[in-house]
């Protein structure tokens, strides 16, 4: 099936991830639709976005099922689609909705080092996922509203998070616990023990999206250097298949496998970084395009009913914090989570990567 037809069919079949409540999983699809619309100008992507997100945003900007006092950083991601729709439709409810999300961030609890907690229920913790969920939105909102302090704060949070989660091998662990109370946290460093590919994928997309919004000046110079180094490490770990392993830094680990969502995230980040001049373009574009082509050729497959699915997506992975929770952050844990098809956390990034591939081919 042509990728555009797959995305169109997927969006027609798509059921809101949490019954219509505001959530980051839907936000992954919204982000993919925004980028497909920007890359193609085809009305169907905008129409899908309006059909899906419209019922979630009331006239006063309140959001269905959203509770700011949960202080869930994941809930910020769909706000990027609100900023886009405010610009293209002129409807005030969309920017009002984005302002509600920014209101959460203005009260959001932080580490002593200055970073947002991942969630109220995950206190004193930074996860790489959360950098993608919150910081590009904060930068974009700051630019739209002329609040330069929001941009500076987001850049500082990136810098601090990288320092807190860095590994000697040039990659980043999934999470950091300031309190050192979690069973997965190293008692000395506070870091979780493994390099999970999708966590690094969230990070790579966050960095590239943030820097593509900002000029190459002194304020972003150090973050640009860190981003180049990370992308170089990602390219170095690309498999002969052009994809990447679930436990990114342990390719020979028994049971490790090439995972689709992280591979789509890396494809997107590499293609966008090359297009915006964040890294040497030719090698980067080649790596990103190779990954995108491999995903389209090997991971889009018809199921028993003849419906095309995007396969080999780890459904979810996190870091435990509750009694009886076995999410200990070890490499073996990341290999124990179910693998599924058509999950929004994989399809959304594939849409993004495909859109970026169209942009980079021009």
List keywords for this structure.
single chain, two-stranded antiparallel sheet, mainly alpha, 362 residues
Lay out the secondary structure.
Layout: H1 3-13, H2 24-40, H3 43-53, H4 79-89, H5 92-107, E1 125-127, H6 128-145, H7 148-165, E2 175-177, H8 197-212, H9 221-236, H10 260-275, H11 281-298, E3 300-302, E4 308-310, E5 313-314, H12 331-334, E6 339-340, H13 344-360
Helix pairs in contact: 2-3, 2-4, 2-13, 4-5, 6-7, 6-8, 8-9, 8-10, 10-11, 10-13, 11-13
Describe this structure in words.
- The structure is a single chain.
- The chain has helices at 3-13, 24-40, 43-53, 79-89, 92-107, 128-145, 148-165, 197-212, 221-236, 260-275, 281-298, 331-334, 344-360; strands spanning 125-127, 175-177, 300-302, 308-310, 313-314, 339-340.
- The protein is mainly alpha-helical and 362 residues long.
- A hairpin with a 5-residue loop joins strand 3 (300-302) and strand 4 (308-310).
- Helix 11 (281-298) crosses helix 13.
The rounded distance between the terminal residues' Cα atoms is 23 Å
Strand/helix succession: HHHHHEHHEHHHHEEEHEH
Strand content: under 5%
Give the number of helices.
Answer: 13
Percentage of helical residues? Answer: 40-55%
User: How many strands, which pairing sense, and closed or not: the largest β-sheet?
Assistant: 2 strands, antiparallel
Strand order within the widest sheet?
1-2
Multimeric state? single chain
Rg computed from alpha carbons, rounded to a whole number of angstroms: 19 Å
The average pLDDT value, as a whole number, equals 97
Unreliable segments (pLDDT under 50, ≥5 consecutive)?
none
Number of extended strands: 6
Shape: globular
SSE-based structural type: mainly alpha
